[in-house]
UniProtKB/TrEMBL annotation:
PROSITE patterns the UniProt entry points to: G_PROTEIN_RECEP_F1_2 (PS50262)
Transmembrane domains' residue ranges: 83-102, 111-129, 178-195, 207-228, 267-287, 307-332
The protein's name: G-protein coupled receptors family 1 profile domain-containing protein
Annotated ranges, domain G-protein coupled receptors family 1 profile: 94-339
Annotated GO CC locations: membrane
Any Pfam family: 7TM_GPCR_Srw
Keywords, in A-Z order: Membrane, Transmembrane, Transmembrane helix
UniProt cross-references to Gene3D superfamilies, sorted A to Z: Rhodopsin 7-helix transmembrane proteins
Subcellular location: Membrane
Highest taxon of source: Eukaryota
Main location: membrane
Entry's Gene Ontology molecular function annotations: G protein-coupled peptide receptor activity
Gene coding for it: Cnig_chr_V.g17868
Amino acid sequence: MGTKKVKPTTSTINPFSDYYEDDPDYYNPCDDKYYDPYDEFCAIYRDNPLEYLAPDGDFLSSSSDWINTVYSLFRFFDKFKPIYEVACYIIFIINIFHLLILTRKELRSNLVYMIMIGVGISDLVQSLGTMAQHFMTLNIVYKIEDCGESGAYRYDHLIVNLVAKSAQVMSRRCSSFLALYIAVIRALAILFPMIQRVATIMKPAYGFLMMIIVLVSCTIWSVVFFVLTEFKKILTCGNLYRPSYVMYKFQVDEQFKYPFMFVDGCMALFVSFSYVILASVLVVAICKAEKRRRSLGSDESSNASKLVTIMAVSVFISETTYGALYVVIYSFDRQYEEM
């Protein structure tokens, strides 16, 4: 037996009115309130929504097994989201102190430290984006109501999310390319220390010019993401709940969304593998230099090779994970369309 709906006593036009049945017994049979554990349809729908999309058994095929595996991985990694959000607050504080040190007069005139300032600012923006999105979910700005639609929020909430995500797209690419640029100039300085042209590009003016080029390029890339994203008004909630405000959610043109993610993922993978190659060259060159010093009777040791290795491993893990995730999402979408 259903529950009777009470029409609101207000002159304001209800944007949901055209999408609700007049029948007072209209309800969602798979909601917790009405759920019958012996209902085969609801059991499939609640346990695995993807299997519900192919009830004829297609999910026994290899391609469907692949989709289910990827879907399970996404749900698994989503459990670590609270840890990531807390980590962003910690990284934000660390980056503040890091920038206070790098912006000292005696350091900011050095090319490498100048680029590191750019990397620090990019990481700061990345953390701020996550913090802003997390803050909007704390029910401080407004009370979030459950609509049964994933990613459905008030309009101003989505504006904050879109600006934050666009800034993160820009800052993430800036940080990775600037880190790669540091590896390039360090490799050139060690491999070709006597070449005048290398000494010329090591000047701070060239580093500042490169930072501007990277910033402009990455900003254009993030603007593409911003333009491709639209807001879709939610006129009917999945759980038949009528919120006190109109909800919206992101809607990206499928024709551009996944190719954008694929290209962004490929850029991350390019930076990752390029950094590892340059770091390997650097480590070999540093080891040879230390060997020459020892042959000349110098006992002075250096931890440069260890630091380069640690940096290479950290960049490889972060960029490869990010890039592989986006490439997998793209493959997931292609597999799903072929079913």
